Amino acid sequence: MARNRVLSLLTLLAFVVAAPTLVAQQKDEKKRSKQEQQEIEQIVKLVDGVMAGQPGPGDVQMEITPYFLKSQEQRTFVPFVLNVKNAPATDVAMYVRVVNPSPAAATEGDKDKKKDDEKTEYPWDDIHFVPAAQMSGGNASLNRVFMATPGTYDVYIAVKERLPEKAPKNQAAKVGVTKTQVTVPDFNNGELATSSVIVADKVNMLQAPLNPDEARERPFVFGAQELVPAADMDFGKSEELSIFYQVYNSGLDAEGKPNLIMEYNFHRKEGGEEKFFNKTNPQNINASNLPPQFDPAKFPVPGGITVPLQSFGEGEYRLEIKISDKASGKTLTRDVNFSVKAS
Questions:
Q1: Which of 270, 63, 92, 275 is nearest to 175 (CA)?
Q2: Where are the domains of the chain?
Q3: Closest-CA residue to 68 (of 302, 246, 332)
Q4: Is the CATH code 3.40.50.1820 the one for domain 5-18+192-341?
Q5: Alpha-carbon dihedral of residues 65, 70, 74, 76, nearest 10 degrees?
Q6: pLDDT digits (tens, 9 = 90+) for 38-73
Q7: At 117, is the pLDDT very low, low, confident or very high (cuts 50, 70, 90)?
Q8: Cβ(114)–Cβ(105) under 8 Å?
Q9: Into which CATH architecture does domain 34-184 fall?
């Protein structure tokens, strides 16, 4: 059996107690310079054109990886990692727009509304000015967030290089627009469910709380902890596999507390087949180890493990997470596929 350690309940509760509630949507009420205002107008018009059917510029290529977590309102919290290729080595303006492609099927709060004398409103749109240091001048990875009610959305992200104010008029800025369809799950339907499983490269401890602007740019912060999502699912034998997730809508026992068993089974892929490799000890979360003040109406149940990979041979693996709800009799499984390579 691989040496492993189930994360302490105290550590997991720190991840959950500050579960996302609301990220303030940037309404761009800040005092902007004339150049910034022009850049905002340009990048918004650029996305307008792509939505109208114009081809999007491809100087900069982007791909998003969204994660889904329940918030304390009807909208789902959607932090995402944006991988950028051919990023400019300068400051950039970035625009995120979330569009419901079928307004007739949207909830009243998310319908696109437009009158002759007002601009279109979207479920989410946000402007970011990103410093050159974060763009890396090649391939970059940025964390951002949006919130939306359950449903399927088109997510547009535009990046435009910020040129110096006195740049030559014939100097063209690097520009890129990507469109991705994202389906936001419903965590408020009463069915046993989990958040996305976050595989973390590391967990950083914060010295001070984030302000609202920082929270929009660092959405994987929970309380005093910041998860750094793994860049890929390839790990060396000297590394660890660390996963975090939340369980929603579990049943309650006679004491009004969840009663869950989390099992973690590893399977190795060999010759097109899978073979059982090893497992951890089951993780039990119930009234005996939850704090008396734990309120299931306010907080989800945490889950997660950290497993050193020294004893894993090189190859492809699947971690099966099985969650058994003893109070309701329901079960569900989640999978994490990863590979182990020589360090």
A1: 92
A2: 5-18+192-341, 34-184
A3: 246
A4: no
A5: 0
A6: 889 999 999 999 999 999 888 999 999 999 999 888
A7: very low
A8: no
A9: Sandwich (2.60)
